[in-house]
Write a structure and sequence with these properties.
The chain is of the alpha+beta class. Helices cover 23% and strands 20% of the residues.
């Protein structure tokens, strides 16, 4: 048990606290930048035309430097410790994505790799056929082919017989049975087990790192699980010399910057006009804005934005910006391995004591006045599939009387000094962890500690560097923790990644057989409407487990020089503004 500090006073006002995002990493009123002049639409049309706002003709050539408000520890988002929003952003210009969701949640296939959308060619067992673009390649003269699909299967299988001691961010390939060529060499057929019939088969991530690069390292990844794991480590630690995207890396330092130039072998339909793109890490949004003011950075789509940041941007006539709800949803998670928090009754009371509306009022609402509490883990409040599973339970209500009733019924008591004692008479105490570097995250932490002090719980606030988010989660080095998930508009893999008992990204180690059964049934439901019903059953069960408390879809901002064209935010993409980086350019005169 960790000793801690009891917060006795109500915390002061703060700005937004949108914690560092972990990706699996949407609208409300917007604040448009004042930098857009006549004839320069900037982001002013994004509320009405989010898919095409800030469009225009591009000049031939030019350079863009784009700020990232965090760091990354490696180059392989297959791995749970590297599956962060920052890794996904820095890998976006070269990663072999199947496709992207646009701002209307419509899926657009990556035509640089595929000749058309995946096709369901058999229902039982489920078989999906992919037709490759005949020019699809890794930017080094090697075509994308069967082995590359098999490599990703092994890497993301979660099966030690395929990849020894690997920790995939999500075992999306756990139910793959075979991957074979189809009737012709340009067709790849993936066959799934009888345990998989997902309604979201079209969106499965089937490509990642190139198999031939692993071969060149002398790794027998296809037959030796230890070599397969070594290949994943190699891709993590090695700056990529390959690219399946519109740009390739010319120079990079892990966690600091990556300099890209056009990939001449890219097979996509969009012509790249930029000569150079630099993605650079910064320790704060304030630093990015300062660099933009000085003309050394051209834009950013940070994972968090504060009221102070918005005020700064509003005073800059040469910076366009837009604020809206983003893909990241902030939440508080509990480690059920803690000696006290293993008790569902205590977890329930803890969540009942936390006042989410007050957290929002003192943080997110300072940026977006109508920021609303998130009331479903899997569906946004404006989704047609949304159901409120939280309000009736009192979780997130800041209801101290209800929390005390819950504890009293479970055999908890209080000593003469008001400290909560568990049924064995031990004083309840644990830690709360969050990424430092933000007054807003500190405000949230102070509010949580204050709320829990009201029911007699001693909480130690233990911040960590934002760059350590992945390792902190991966090691379950917390009792309670606040962070964010960014996700696409899908639920099947999200549910498995968040809560399945065997998922490496189930960081609080919840093990609920009933929840596992629901997650398994979701993966077997091909009908989208029935899948949505199961999704809501899953959300209801997570609430019953009192494992994860949703807060809000956090407000985010995009900011850019008026000279940039075809640059816009995308709540439905894990890569945010970088989702369409091939289209970026400098505005034609």
């Amino acid at each position: 048990m960790r000793s801690g500090m009891l917060r006795a006073g109500r915390p002061g006002l703060g700005a937004i606290g949108a914690g560092a995002a972990l990706v699996m990493v949407a609208g409300g009123t917007t604040a448009c930048g004042v930098g857009a002049g006549a004839g320069d639409p900037g982001f002013q049309d994004c509320a009405t035309d989010p898919v095409a706002c800030n469009s225009g003709e591009r000049a031939d050539g030019g350079e863009i430097t784009w700020g990232i408000d965090g760091s990354w520890t490696g180059w392989n988002p297959n791995l749970s410790a590297e599956y962060t929003v920052y890794t996904l952003q820095v890998t976006a210009p070269y990663w072999p994505a199947v496709g992207q969701f646009d701002q209307n949640a419509e899926f657009v296939v990556n035509d640089a790799i595929f000749a058309g959308e995946p096709e369901l060619v058999n229902e039982s067992p489920m078989q999906v056929e992919y037709t490759l673009n005949p020019d699809a390649n890794w930017g080094d003269g090697t075509g994308i082919g069967l082995d590359d699909f098999i490599y990703t299967w092994y890497a993301r299988s979660g099966d030690g017989d395929l990849c020894k001691d690997c920790t995939p961010a999500a075992a999306t390939a756990a139910e793959v049975v075979s991957i074979e060529e189809g009737a012709t060499a340009d067709k790849i057929v993936i066959t799934y087990s009888d345990r998989y019939a997902s309604s979201e088969w079209k969106y499965e991530p089937v490509l990642s790192n190139p198999a031939h690069i692993a071969d060149e390292q002398g790794l027998d990844w296809k037959h030796d699980p230890a070599d397969m794991a070594a290949a994943e480590t190699y891709f993590s630690q090695t700056v990529p010399t390959w690219s399946a995207g519109p740009f390739e890396i010319q120079d990079a330092v892990t966690g600091e910057y990556a300099i890209f130039t056009p990939n001449d072998d890219w097979a996509g339909s969009t012509e790249v006009t930029l000569d150079k793109l630099t993605l650079k890490s910064f320790d704060s949004v304030e630093s990015i804005i300062t660099e933009m003011r000085q003309g050394t950075v051209d834009g950013a789509s940070p994972g968090s934005i504060s009221a102070e940041n918005v005020a700064q941007l509003a005073g800059e006539g040469e910076i366009d910006f837009n604020v809206d709800r983003g893909p990241l949803w902030h939440h508080i998670d509990i480690n059920v391995g803690n000696e006290f928090l293993s008790d569902p009754a205590l977890r329930t009371a803890v969540f009942q004591a936390i006042d989410v509306e007050e957290i929002i009022a003192r943080t997110y609402a300072n940026v977006q006045s109508d920021a609303a509490r998130k009331l479903n883990h899997l569906y946004r409040n404006d989704s047609p599939n949304f159901e409120d599973h939280l309000t009736a339970t009192g979780q997130g209500a800041g209801d101290m009387e209800l929390a005390r009733d819950t504890l009293d019924a479970a055999g908890y008591t209080w000593d003469g000094e008001g400290r909560l004692l568990d049924p064995e008479g031990e004083a309840v105490a644990f830690d709360y962890r969050y990424a430092d570097g933000s007054a807003d995250r500190q405000t949230m932490a102070d509010l949580v500690a204050f709320n829990l002090a009201d029911i007699g719980i001693e909480v130690e606030l233990r911040p960590f560097p934002a760059a350590e988010l992945g390792p902190t989660l991966d090691e379950s080095n917390f009792d309670m923790i606040a962070f964010g998930w960014t996700s696409q508009p899908v639920i099947v893999n999200s549910a498995r990644q968040f809560w399945a008992s065997d998922a490496p990204t189930n960081y609080g180690r919840l093990d609920d057989p009933a929840l596992d059964a629901l997650i398994d049934s979701l993966a077997l439901e091909p009908d989208p409407e029935k899948a949505a019903e199961i999704g809501n059953e899953i959300a209801r069960q997570v609430v019953q487990d009192a494992y994860q408390l949703p807060l809000v879809n956090t407000p985010v901002a995009i900011m850019a020089s008026p000279e940039l064209v075809n640059v816009r935010d995308n709540w439905a993409s894990q890569q945010r503004a970088l989702y369409n980086v091939a289209e970026w350019g400098l505005r034609a005169a």
